[in-house]
Each structure stands twice: as C-alpha cells, then as structure tokens.
Amino acid sequence: MSARGLLQSLGWPVATGLLIALLTLLAFPELRGPNGAPDPTRPAITSYADAVDRAAPAVVSIYTRKIQEQQRHPLADHPFYRRFFPERPQQQRAQSALGSGVIVDPRGYLLTNEHVINGADEIQVLLYDGRETRARLVGTDPESDLAVLKIDLEDLTVIDVPEPTQARVGDIVLAIGNPFGVGQTVTQGILSATGRYNLNLSEYENFLQTDAAVNVGNSGGALVDIHGQLLGINTAILGEGNTSVGVSFAIPADSAMRALREIIEHGRVVRGWLGLEVRPLSQDQASALAMNSTQGVVVTAVYSGSPAEQAGLTPGDILTHIDDESVGNGRRGMNQIAATAPGSEVTLRILRNGEPIELETVIGERPLPAST
Question: What's any GO biological process attached to this entry (predicted)?
Fold first, then answer.
C-alpha cells in the first residue's frame, strides 16, 4: 500500500479518536491541564468510588414513627350501640415513614427534608457504619422544606461542603440515599439545570435539577459532585406516582447550610423582608417603556409601616434592581431579599412613569407565617 493510501485508510480512525478525546475533555474538565489543555499526567476517570468513599459515610437513613389514635365509631356514644359493643380503651396505631439525611457538622447536626420528619413522634437514624440512635429535632423551616436533627454519637463522618458551592449545568452528580428502604444506594447523572422555581414544592424555591435516579426514601439525602462534596439536599421528583422519571430536584447546599446555621442559632430561619406585593412585568409594559427585556416586577401593594413604604415605593412602580442585582421576574429578587440580613441597607432601582429613580431603605425581618 502506498503512503497516501495508508494515510487515507487511517483518516477515519484517527478522526474518530480525536473526536472521542475532545468529548471526554468536555465532559470531564478535571482532566484538562493549564489553560484547558489535556493533562497527560492525570488518568481518565473510570470510577466514582473515591467520591462515594468520602461522602457515603456522612449520609444516614432516617426512620420515623408517628402514633395516631384510631377513630371512634360515629355511634359509639349511642346507648343502643354501647349495649352491644361495650366501649374499649382507645386504640393507637403506629405509622412509619423513611427518608435520608446528611451529617454536616461534627457536633452531630444533620440536614434532611421537613416532609421526612413532619409530625413524627420518634426519629431513628441509621448510620453508614451500622450504628443506630434516636435523633432530636432541633428545628424546621417548612418554607424551604428543610429540617435540622441532632444525634449524640462520637467519631462521626462529616460531608465536605465547599464554600461557595460550584455547581454548573453539565456537571456529573451522584445522589446518595436510601430509596424504598432497601439500604444506601448511589445513582449517577448530570446537573440538568439550576435556579428552578414555580414548582409549588415550597415557598422559597431555587432548586438544582438532575437526572440522577431519585426515589421515595432519597428525600433528605446528598447530591454530591465527583469529588464527594455536597452540592444539595435531594428533595423531590417530578412525575406520576413515586417513581423516578429522570427529573429530580435538590436544595442547593449553600442555601441549606444557611438555614442550618439560622435554625441552630435562632430556632428558625430569619429572613429579610421589604413588605410589598408584586407581579411580573408583561411584554407590553416593557415595550411601552422601551425596556430591552421583562426583567422587572410591577409593585401592586405596599404594606403599611414596611421598609418598602419607608423607601417611598408606591403601587405602579417598576422594581428592576436591588443593590445592582436584577430582580428578574420577581423570584430572584424575592430570594435575594430573603437571604439579606435584617438591618442591612439596600438600594432599590425603580422606574416611575418611565423615569429611573434610586431609593434607599433598610431591610426588615420577615414576619412569621400564620400558623394553621
């Protein structure tokens, strides 16, 4: 075979190999060297065992028990009924549930979902090493579906939580938990999206979305990166019934850790508050004001005595920025205010009758939601 023929016969295999190498580097950026070039000294990743070894011992199984009084027969107090069915002591029935949790503090503090332990009379925690103990409920935040538990054991493995977390769409992620009570399992997927909201799962939504298999029992478990670092707390799945369809959601780790610190210190999550009601800016309103996008909200109500009223906001104003950060369609601004410590000074940028105005105010503390 001539040299030219040899090169032609090798063309497709070489091109295919180069394409595979390029796709590998795109999928695994950790394999690149300085300036994004391939790093020949680092072997290709063929296993996530090291990440699991770091993270799995910090993920626990949670079993809850709720005692319910059995309902009495509606005619139980009728003399005729009691003649044939003498009254007996009230019977109790135990209702069990399961979930997962993550040890995030060497003092024994755990994060899990509020819906995992809601109404529980007893909470049992099973550790990765086989130890079992009862957990104490420190506090909950139903508005973000988070709860903090405390266990009193020595030699606990704590998951690594980077500050801040670096979660990017396309990252490989691992979900660790106890689905269906079968025992701890690990599933793998990619981070599909960030900042998901309007899912009606909780009041404050800023979810990570992943296609890693998450099922009943995974709630409260860990979503980690390929280094075993915590990215989020697995919370919910999307689909009919309780079976994974490849769309699941996790609370970002930085939000969860902020809630944990607030609950430990104050017994609840303290959130910032402006005291106003808004609705998204329509395309027609944005066009009328010659705005390039609908990134803004229309103020529809201002609460009496609120920081918004003190700033001079009035219904009809269009709020576009808080401290130079765009409020988006409202959800981003809501989360930004909630994460701002009460007493902090902020600058509000608004449009009033088409004219830009800057207002100053001090963030207040969000009132506690009314109990039901």
Answer: proteolysis
